[in-house]
Design goal:
Length: 207
């Protein structure tokens, strides 16, 4: 039976359906809205089990956002999906360096992916950074390497690339680093999931 729902109530009803389907499942209070927003974005209930949070990841991310940190993504799709109005009101902005001419030139010269060079460029930003990676496992691998050398200390890494080559392995690397992370274990993820996680955090602060 088709429900007659006003446009402004569609999201509310969607979250009610998600809650109904999850039934008796319980999540840590600070994680629940993030997990449900990812399910809302993807219509995939596997994220109820796949999303992994480091201790106090949400609390540390909210602190960084309130302090005006920037966000770096690996796709313009994720950048487009992040709520820049709320982020801007907190003093932050979103960067995606993947299409920058200097990034493309250096990647070609070195024979590496643009994602690698983009993460290196992000490491030079003066502000604290949250990384939202939804596509490129090489971005996560480079972040992991720079954490190891002390070149980078992210405020949070959202590690949710989707795919088959080095995807699972790159996520596992992030989960052994001593940094706050939210990771989708396994092959699932995507730019829409990365943006959904960031938005869920922003909505905790303002909506």
């Amino acid at each position: 039976m088709i429900e007659n729902i006003k446009p402004m109530d569609i999201e509310k009803r969607s979250f009610e359906i998600i809650t109904e389907i999850l039934g008796d499942r319980k999540f840590p209070e600070e994680q629940e809205s993030i997990i449900k927003r990812v399910i809302h974005t993807s219509a995939d209930f596997d994220y109820a089990d796949n999303l992994k949070f480091s201790p106090n990841a949400v609390e540390k991310a909210l602190e960084a956002l309130r302090s005006g940190c920037d966000i770096v993504t690996d796709t313009n799709m994720a950048k487009a999906g992040i709520n820049k109005t709320i982020l801007g009101s907190l003093g932050g902005e979103v960067h995606c360096f993947m299409a920058d001419p200097d990034v493309a030139k250096e990647a070609k010269e070195r024979g590496v992916t643009r994602a690698i060079v983009s993460m290196e460029k992000a490491a030079k930003l003066e502000k604290p950074v949250i990384f939202a990676i939804g596509n490129a496992p090489t971005a996560l691998i480079r972040i992991h390497e720079m954490i190891g050398t002390g070149e980078l200390k992210p405020a949070l890494v959202v590690g949710v690339p989707v795919g088959f080559v080095n995807v699972v392995e790159s996520k596992e690397l992030i989960m052994v680093d001593d940094i706050p992370y939210i990771v989708a274990k396994g092959r699932k993820g995507g730019s829409n999931v990365a943006a959904a996680i960031i938005n869920a955090l922003l909505y905790k602060i303002k909506r």
